[in-house]
Amino acid sequence: MRRNIINNSKIYLIELACVLLLATFISVPASSCTIFVLTNGQRVLFCNNEDYSNPKTRIWFVTAGDGHYGCLYVGFDNGWAQGGMNTKGLAFDWVAGYTVKWKPERGMIKVRGNPSERMLETCANVEEAIAFYKTHREPSFSYARILIADSSGTSIIIGASDGHLQFEKANQSRGFGYMGIVDTMLANSPEPTVANGTIILRACLQKGQYATKYSNIFDLKSGNIFIFQFPEREDTVNLNLVNELSRSSHYYDIALIHQQLTKPPIPLLDNMKRFYLDEFKSIPDKEPNITRHVRTIIQDIIDGIMKSDDYTIEYWTIISPAQKEMQSGLKQYGDFISLTLVGRKVENDKRSYRYLWEFKNVTLLQQVILDENNKVARMQFEYGEFKPDTTDVDD
Predict the structure, then answer these.
(1) Which residue range(s) make up the domain with 340?
(2) Which end of the chain is more exposed for a tag (fewer CB within 10 A), N or C?
(3) If we measure between CA atoms, which residue out of 347, 255, 359 comes closest to residue 302?
(4) Which residue, among 357, 370, 375, 369, has the nearest Cα to 20 in the 3D structure?
(5) 59 exposed, middle or buried (CB, 10 Å; 0-12, 13-18, 19+)?
(6) Residues 163 and 141 sit within 8 Å (Cβ to Cβ)
(7) What CATH number does the domain containing 305 carry?
(8) 166 and 65 in one domain?
(9) Domain check: are 264 and 281 in the same one?
C-alpha cells in the first residue's frame, strides 16, 4: 500500500503543482498488501507483504532522541513510511483499498509529517497507539486500515465506518489483506515461527502491476528483522533493530541491501529525516529587492496573473500551459505568509536562491534560479511539510 503527502523529489514547479493537487493520500487497488500477526504469548511476529507499482523500496533506521524512540521504517523512495517497528516492540503497517466516509474529528491534533511515524516514535504499546489515533489526525482512514501490534501479542485494527473510527482489539494471531488468504491460513493457528510466516507471505504474493515489492517479518520481542525479496531471491536478509541503531541513522535500498550491508552505512536522505526543515535557518538577505521580486512572482501564481516577462523564454514554454494547475496547487495550502532566504549561490551566469515558502498550512523548501536579467530560469521543489496545529477538519 502506498501512502504519501508531499513527495521529496526534486521537480519543476509545474510538476509540484500536479503533486500538490494529488497531495491528499493516493489509494491503490482493493486488497493490496497483506499484514498479519503470529503470536502464542511467548513470541510475536509482525508480517507484511508490500504491494505496489514502485520498485524503489527502502528500509531506514532513525535513532532515538529527546522524546522519541529509535525506529525502523519500510517504504519507498519518497521517504513516507508504510510500516515500521520501534525499540519498545511496537509495529504497524497499512492495507489500502477501502472507500469509507471519514474526516478527522474537529479538534484533532495535526502532526508534522507522517502521523504513523509520529505514533511509532512516541508510543510504547497498543494502548498508547489507540490513544494517539483518538486524538491525532490521520486522513488515511478514509481509504485504509492499520494493524498495530506490540510485544505482548496484543494487536489492534483501526479503520473508519459510518464516519467514526472503529477499534478491533485482540490477543491472538490475525490479519488481513490479499484475497482473504490470510484468514484461511491463520484458521489452523500456526506457531509463530519465521518459517510459518514466510509460508503465508509466499501464499499471498501479488503479481502484475501491483506486485509484491518486498516482504518483512519483525520479531517484536527480540527486535530481529527478516527482509525478503520474493520471488527474485530465495534468501533472507537478517538484521537486528538495536544493532542497526547503534550504527547511527542510515538506510538501505532493499533491492541492493546485500551489497550495501558490506559497506559503511548510508546516511539518511533528506526525506527520511524527522524534521528536515529544522536544518534551515534564515541567512542575511543582502538582496531584498530579489526577495521582493520572487515574492511577487509567487503571489502572481496564486492570483492567477502570471507574467511571461518574469520568466526565461524556455521556462515559460514549460510552465505556461499549467498556470491553472499551479495556482490551484498553491492556493489549497492557505494564505501565503512569508518568504525566507536560507541559501544563495552563483553558478555561471545564474544565481540560485533557496527559500522557505511559508503558507498557512504548509512550509515548502524551494529553489529559485534567476538569470542575469532576474528572470526565473527554474523553480525547483525540494521538500514540503504540513504544519502541526489543532485546526478544524474543514481547513
Answers:
(1) 277-386
(2) C
(3) 359
(4) 357
(5) buried
(6) no
(7) 3.10.450.590
(8) yes
(9) no
Instruction: Using DSSP bridges, classify how beta strands 250-253 and 164-170 pair: parallel, antiparallel or unpaired.
Output: unpaired
Q: Between 178 and 369, name the one with better pLDDT.
A: 369
Q: Which amino acid is at 388?
A: P
Q: Is residue 6 part of a domain?
A: no
3-state secondary structure of 33: coil
341-372 confidence digits (pLDDT tens): 999 999 878 899 999 999 998 899 999 999 99
Task: Read off the amino acid at residue 387.
Answer: K
CA dist., res. 189 & res. 388, Å (int):
43
Q: How many Cβ atoms sit within 10 Å of the Cβ of residue 260?
A: 16
Number of separate domains in the chain: 2
User: Are 125 and 88 in contact, with CB atoms under 8 Å apart?
Assistant: yes
Alpha-carbon distance of 189 to 165, in angstroms, equals 28
Q: pTM to 2 decimals?
A: 0.79
The single residue listed with the C-alpha cell 515461527 is: 193
Which grid cell is 390? 489543532
The SS3 call for residue 385 is strand
Please say which residue of 241, 274, 307 terminates a domain. Answer: 274
